[in-house]
Amino acid sequence: MGIQEYFESDLRFYYAIGVFVMLVYVLGIALSALLDLAVIDHRLIPLTVGFFLFMFVYFISVSVQALEPDS
């Protein structure tokens, strides 16, 4: 299966975008911690929890959209 065939479905594309955004977030936090660019402490926990709750709602809304009948 080619990459273009994989993304023919809108649902797969939206899931891939969601996974990409989460990957960028996690890599950004990891790089800031490793390179001492930012102080990583307990103040980051609410931001991270909020981000992953937002992504959870994003994935739920994409899944619900797939259940709607085609018009």
Q: Could you describe the 3D structure shown?
A:
By secondary structure, this protein is an all-alpha fold. Helix content is 75%, strand content 0%. It is built from three helices and no strands. The model has no long low-confidence stretch (mean pLDDT 85).
Features:
3 helices; 71 residues
Question: How would you summarize what this structure contains?
Answer:
The protein is mostly helical.
Radius of gyration: 16 Å
Low-confidence stretches: none
H/E element sequence: HHH
Distance between the termini: 28 Å
Multimeric status of the protein: single chain
Fraction in helix: over 70%
Q: If helices are DSSP runs of H or I spanning 4 or more residues, what is the number of helices?
A: 3
* Main sheet attributes: strand count, strand direction, barrel closure: none
Shape: elongated
Q: What's the mean pLDDT score?
A: 85
The total count of strands amounts to 0
**Binned strand content:** under 5%
Please identify the structural class as seen in this structure.
mainly alpha
